[in-house]
Amino acid sequence: MLTKTMTRIGAATAPLLLAALLAGCATSKNKADTQYVARDVSTLYNAGKYRLDRGQYKLAAALFDEVERQHPYSPWARRAQLMSAFSYYMNKDYPESISAAQRFLSIHTGNKDAPYAYYLIALCYYEQIADVTRDQKITKQALDALGEMIRRYPDTRYAADARLKLDLVNDHLAGKEMEIGRFYQRRGQWLAATLRFRTVIDKYQTTTHTPEALERLVESYLSLGIPAEAQKAAAVLGKNYPGSKWYERSYKLMREHPNKA
Q: In whole angstroms, what is the distance from residue 21 CA to residue 43 CA?
């Protein structure tokens, strides 16, 4: 369900990005667009725009890069850097997109389009988030990039979308902790499992995984022989999620293992 939700949100992102960038009409249909020939800046830029409009993202990116290379001091070069980054993003060439956006920020610090560049970098990491069974390095990079974008530009139109994606990223990371915790439980490594479930409670308490994490804590504490801690976890679960299946399971467990202290 989470993966499907992220896919739908990702699909809705491209129009937001494109609307922030597109300007002017395309005019060039040259099949040898990227062959090096000294051309005026508007011809190059419009050639890139033409290819972008037709979904030829890799070729469009190369043309926008050529604008920057042939006319580095032109006002068009700044816009071409972002158009290049967007074209790479649409082509799912995320490292190149990040590189282009970061290059823009390094040269044009404080520019009015800086929020867009930060947002695009965050999206590139977000689109690469892997399944919870795999390493979550990219997920953490997405978390950092989205947080940076929101911190720097909280009132921009990109911030609301970034906050939504941030919630999904946190849910994803919590899911990873749960997956590892359940693995430890199956192996009877109760202390290791407890540490993972506590991480969910402490760092990701607003995610959808919290009720299960509390119930798993009840299981783990009982297995460790500390029913008092299990009772505390069950009480929190009962107070916050009284109608959930996880509370029903923890209630049953506590009745089977009453605290005699």
A: 18
The Cα–Cα gap between 105 and 261 comes to 61
Handedness of CA 139, 5, 162, 116 (dihedral sign): positive
**How far apart, in whole angstroms, are the C-alpha atoms of residue 146 and residue 210?**
22
Select from 75, 123, 73 the least CA-distant residue to 98: 123
pLDDT tens track for 204-225: 999 999 999 999 999 999 999 9
Query: What pLDDT is stored for residue 29 in this prediction?
Result: 42
The region, left, alpha or beta by phi > 0 then psi within -120 to 50, assigned to residue 24 is: left
Residue 188 DSSP code: T
The 10 Å CB-count burial string (b at 16+, else e) for 240-255 is ebeebebbebbbebbe
Shortest CA distance to 180 belongs to which of 197, 167, 198?
197
- Tokens coding 238: 């009962």
Contact present, 33 and 47 (Cβ < 8 Å)? yes
pTM score of the predicted model: 0.79
Judged against a pLDDT cut of 80, whether residue 259 lies above it is answered with no
d(CA 98, CA 79): 15
Question: What is the spatial distance between Cα 242 and Cα 240, in angstroms, rounded to a whole number?
Answer: 6
54 C-beta neighbours (distance < 10 Å), count: 12
Give the three-state DSSP class for 109: coil
180/128 Cα distance (integer angstroms): 21
With a CB cutoff of 8 Å and minimum separation 6, the contacts of 110 are none
Give 72's contacts (C-beta < 8 A, 6+ positions apart): none
Cβ neighbour number for residue 45 with a 10 Å cutoff? 27
Task: HSE, CB side, 13 Å, CA atoms: give it for residue 86.
Answer: 25
